[in-house]
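Standup notes
- DV: blocked on the single-chain target, sequence here:
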Amino acid sequence: MRAWWVEEPGPIASGPLQLGERPDPSPGASEILLSVLACGVCRTDLHLAEGDLRPKAVRRIPGHEVVGEVIGLGAGSSRFRLGERVGAAWLARTCGACRFCQRGSENLCLTPTFNGWDIDGGYAELMTVHQDYAYPIPDVFTDEQAAPLLCAGIIGYRALRCSGLPPGGRLGIYGFGGSAHLTAQMALFEGARVYVMTRSSAAQSLALRLGAEFAGPAEAEPPALLDAAILFAPAGGLVPVALRALDRGGTLAVAGIHLSDIPALDYQKDLFQERHLRSVTANTRADGREFLSLAERIPLRPTTVSYAWTSADKALLDLSADAYSGAAVLLRRS
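- DV (later): unblocked, structure below
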């Protein structure tokens, strides 16, 4: 098969991704083999390529927002049929036995496995996935629309729930890329008032078109105190900015897997009056199922920019430059 892999992590402009041929994967026990139809381009892929997240193996194939057709079944695999369209997301496996898995918090598993980091992902023509960690794709979504749902959408859903946003509350969103623009739609659907702070003028315009009451620069002060906020931008310097925008008792949820250093916090200005700061770590499969059900009901409408599958390096370069709004998707079939 043809695939993209991280040859040597480094600045994306230096070309850390390489396109070439790799042996076709074979599905193991309880696994399915997918012919990749589409793969979303996530900022985590950029972190992997540039070395902010070190690849867990040499020549790792990125990609964890994968829509594919089932073309092979491993021993004991019976959940999906040949020809069915399914999705693979960030979470690839959990142990099922540690204290976190046992209490229903598998996102905190002590020995998790992630697609496109621990194991090869969807920047390839073929990919294997454990059947228990794959999702049926609702028919209402095209391949291109469905791809960003599988990470950007799921993590946005978990971040929204972790933010503790009350019904009808005021939600601040810092950074407005693939995940944030989906989260805004969920919050608006559920009756929230949304305020967006982001450096991209194009993203500000998208936020207003989607229904946000305010869109301004990343460090702007929103016109009202926030009941909850979510930080999507990988910029630790925005943590005190967002905390100071919270009303008493509000929560800031940090949704990224990588964040630059957080400046020293002032207890009185940033945290006192029961403001909360919490991280968002991966997701559970229950999050994925709940999110896809909600996405189908809304229905979510991802803003996407399509790239030929052979242009994965260009897609990541454009992501690093904030050259588009919404989510990029690699398509093997147009």
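- Follow-up: The chain has a mean pLDDT of 96.
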